[in-house]
Amino acid sequence: MAEHPVPRSTSTLTLSDDELATELLTLRDCLRWASSEFHLAGLFYGHGTDSPWDEAVALTLGALHLPWSVDPAVLDARLLTMERLRIVALVRARIESRRPLPYLLGEAFFAGLPFDVDERVLIPRSPIAELVEQGFATWFPEEPPARVLDLCTGSGCIGIATALHLPTCEVDLADVSQDALAVARRNITRHDVGDRVRAVAADLFAGLAGRRYDLIVANPPYVDARDLATMPAEFRHEPTLALGAGRDGLDIVRRILREAREHLSDGGVLIVEVGNSDRHLEAAFPEVPFLWLDFERGGQGVFALTADELDAHAASFA
After folding, report:
1. Rg (Cα) of the chain, in Å, rounded?
2. Using CA atoms, how far apart are residues 178 and 30, in angstroms rounded to an integer?
3. Which of 12, 60, 116, 302 has a CA-to-CA distance to 251 between 20 and 30 Å?
4. Domain boundaries, the chain
5. pLDDT tens digit string along 47-101?
C-alpha cells in the first residue's frame, strides 16, 4: 500500500505534547484523535489490526495496560496527565517512525496470549493461531501430539501457545537466530513453561539430530524477492532474515519438505505457512497433494502434509 504523507498543517501533531495532553481528557478523546491522525497519515496496517480505529484502540488500551474486554464505561473516564502524554508520544512515534505498534508496546497477542516482541523477531500474526486454539484436533482427534517442534520459532509464540493449550505435550522451539531465541526464552519464562518447552539453536533441522516429533509446525521465511522489495515501511522494521527466502520465496520451504520426514514420527503431520508464495509452491510441486487450510478469521497459504504423503513424494523433494 502506498504511503501518503500529510502536510503537517492538517494534523494536530503540530501541537506540543503538553498542548495535546491538555485537550485530550478522556479515553474516548484519545481514541477519536488517534484514529483521525492515523487516517491522515496513511499508515499501513497488518500487525494485528486492519484499520485506523482498530490501531487506535490497540494503542490506547496497550498504553494504559487495559484489556480488550474493558468495560465501555471506561471510555469516558478522565485520564491522568502522564497517561495522556504516554498516548501522545506513542501516536507520534507510530506516525513518524512507521514502527509497527507491537514493537512500540513491546507486546503482541497470539492465540489470545501475550508475548514479548521487539525488532529481533517477527510480530506474531499467523493464522496458525486458530489451529493452536483447536488443539490441532483435525489430525489428533483422540490424543494430542506428545512431541511438537515449532520450526523457525521467532518469538516462540506458536510453540508456547501450543504447550499452554495442550498441557501434556513437550515442545522444542528451533531457530537459527540467537537474537530470536533470546526473545523466545523470555517468553518461555513469562509463561512459566520451562519444564516442557525448550529453545534450541538450529539451522532448520541441523541441531535436532535424533529427535522426532508427532507434529512439526513451521512459519519460515517465505516472502519472494518482488514482495520483499515492495513492502511498506512498517514491515522493514522486522528482521529481513525472517522474511525473505529467495526469488520465489521457497528457499527455506524446499529444505523443510526435503528434511522433515527424518524428524517426523510415523503418523505425524507437517504444517507450514507459506503465505502468498502458495502459488509458487503449487507450481513447483504440482504432483504433491498439499492440503490448504481454511481459517475463520482469515489468512491463507498454510498447508498440511502427513508423514505418509511425505514418503510418497520424497522423490519430488530430493
Report:
1. 21
2. 39
3. 116
4. 8-105, 114-317
5. 989 999 999 999 999 999 998 888 889 899 999 999 999 999 999 999 999 999 9
Cell of 277: 508464495
pLDDT tens digits, 261-288: 999 999 999 999 999 899 999 999 999 9
Single pTM value for the model: 0.90
Measure Cα distances from 52 to 6, 24, 40, 80, 167 in Å: 15, 18, 9, 24, 37
| Apex 219 CA angle, 156 and 277, nearest 5 | 160
CATH fold of 114-317: Rossmann fold (3.40.50)
For 138-175, b/e burial (b = at least 16 CB within 10 A) is ebbeeebbebbbbbbbbbbbbbbbbbbbbeebbbbbbb
Rounded to 10 deg, the angle between the 81-97 and 52-63 helix axes is 140
The predicted structure's pLDDT at residue 224: 79
How many of the other CB atoms lie within 10 Å of CB of 76? 11
Q: Angle at the Cα of 291 (from 290 to 297), degrees rounded to 5? A: 130
| Angstrom distances, CA of residue 125 to CA of 48, 94, 184, 317 | 6, 19, 16, 28
